[in-house]
Amino acid sequence: MQNVKGTYDYFGKEQALRSQLQATLREKFALYDFDEMVTTELTELGFLTSKYAGGDEIVKEMYQLTDRRKRRLGLRYDLTIPFAKVMALNPGIELPMKRYEIGKVFRDGPVKRGRLREFLQCDVDVVGVKGPEAEAELMQLAVDVFRTLGIGIQLKWNNRRFLGEILEAVHISAEDALSVMLTMDKLAKIGEAGVREELLQKNLAEDAIAAIEELLALKEPTLEKLMDKYGIRNSRGALEVQAVHEILCKIGLGQACVFDPFLSRGLSFYSGTVYEIFDASGGYASSLGGGGRYDAIIGQLIGREETEYSAVGLSFGVESMMALLGERSAEAAAAPVVLIPIGVTAAELLQTAAELRASGIRVKLDTSGRKLKNILASVSSSGARYALLAGETEWKSGKLRLKDLEERTEREVGVDEAIYWIEKQLGLPYEQLSSRLP
Predict the structure, then answer these.
(1) How far apart are CA 309 and CA 296, in angstroms?
(2) Strand 289-293 with 72-75, pairing
(3) Strand, coil or helix: 152
(4) Res. 362: pLDDT tops 90
(5) Burial class (CB in 10 A: 0-12, 13-18, 19+), 251
(6) How far apart are CA 434 and CA 85, in angstroms?
(7) What letter would DSSP give residue 289?
(8) CA–CA separation, 192 vs 186, rounded Å?
(9) Per DSSP, which regions of 272-428 are E strands?
């Protein structure tokens, strides 16, 4: 009966908070004109293990299975590869395309805070836009989402092509460049000594290792300083970085989005701009999200390398975000009104509840039969603002007793008047309230 390690059931206040988070994300995605997509969780193994997919490390963590017809299948480990499949199956999709998906993915990897085996992932992708405005808009979206959630973040960004040009300038071969990038990306985690140890294991020339160490030791490695030091001011990668940087500054994100020349992210398919999101306080070590440009991967995955699918994506770390939000109260998810029967019939109680719900008010019925004092104590601790008492005497005269548990007031009201006061406290515009004035 125990859950598999790294999997959880969610209910009550925790699930309410998870739903609130998803609602916030969906609302923001709609504002930025992203359409929802739902892809399959079960996929042909050959497609998931393609050399153009997530790489050997991801494949090691993939859940593999065989169906009754002996077909080899796998559970999706991200939302990008199934998205590429949708593009392959629907060649008539009009570009540019902006989509988002929130769904479960599965990885048989180490379990730690914010990293599970069955978890919710949330991706937004833009396909068909070559310019830097696509990356900038996704970074703008990320900052907007976390600002709305009240989470301070630092979004670090870089350009894989630019970093590759720096490595080329210090005589790192194209074959070794990606491996070296991934090691440099671990600088904050394993330190300079750890980076050097990994570089030595790659059988690189000593002068190349020394050049990389000199690069990592630079104080304030700004874009200007790097372009001048390595003579790449007019290189393609440098121009891409300058274009993104210019847009970020113009839209007021120059401080929230910090250029980090050593960032490369773990997945091999990124081809240009990459970014990763971190808790600004430093109290939460895991990434809160990340993404980047992956222009080649869709065409390669679907066997149409001659067709260019310019693509940029951003993945929100929903489980990490939930871990960070976990301390917060889910009171906002509680029903604002609890309807308590005192001598009325079930039909009369449901009739009153129906009128409240028809006005869009969330109502909880308390038919526990406990003493009123205990019910009110429970209602107050649940976070509900109002208790609406339906007593036999008041009911006959068309009245209810409305108790405001926050202001500690009580008034006798009709149903319409009760709706008016409740909606007023919920902050609805006056025009929507005026028709209910007693």
Answers:
(1) 7
(2) unpaired
(3) coil
(4) no
(5) middle
(6) 53
(7) E
(8) 9
(9) 273-279, 289-293, 311-316, 337-342, 363-365, 386-391, 400-404, 409-413
